[in-house]
Amino acid sequence: MQVRRSTSGASADAASNMATLTMSEKAANEVKRLVAVNRLPESTGLRVAVKGGGCSGFTYSVGLDHRLSAIDQIIELHGARLIVDRKSLLYLVNTEVDYQDGLMGKGFVFRNPNAAKSCGCGTSFGVS
Asked: What's the pTM?
């Protein structure tokens, strides 16, 4: 695993937490596939974020992005980039981003041990 910090001068605590957000090889392969199929810049990664809302208090936001801000952290795993802002990272410590492709649908999923509760649809969560 290769971890690269943004040039924003993040604290050592944020850098150590950053390494605990991971992405499965299956998720990384899907990111690379989407970047290639859509002919996006090589710097494109999967941006993940946590936003207020949903039935349980917080929702996950996922999308491809190549634009970075001063508060972003970049994590490179399995040849793909995972981009997360420092505030969202606080809710994603020890979380794995995975990709699911099955009968119930396909998409990126979060295995978040910090989620104390979640809604029935699985798109929102709450922390204790």
From this structure: 0.78
* Total number of domains in the chain: 1
Which domain, by its residues, includes 89?
2-126
- Token look-up 């001068």 returns 9
Phi and psi (nearest 5°) for 103? Answer: -65, -30
Reduced to 3 states (helix: H, G, I; strand: E, B; else coil), residue 23 is strand
Cα angle 61, 27, 31 (rounded to 5 degrees) comes to: 75
Q: What CATH number does residue 117 fall under? A: 2.60.300.12
Burial class (CB in 10 A: 0-12, 13-18, 19+), 114: middle
The SS3 of residue 60 is strand
Give the model confidence (pLDDT) of 13-62 as tens digits.
444 444 489 999 999 999 999 999 999 999 999 999 998 877 667 888 99
Say which DSSP state 50 is in. E
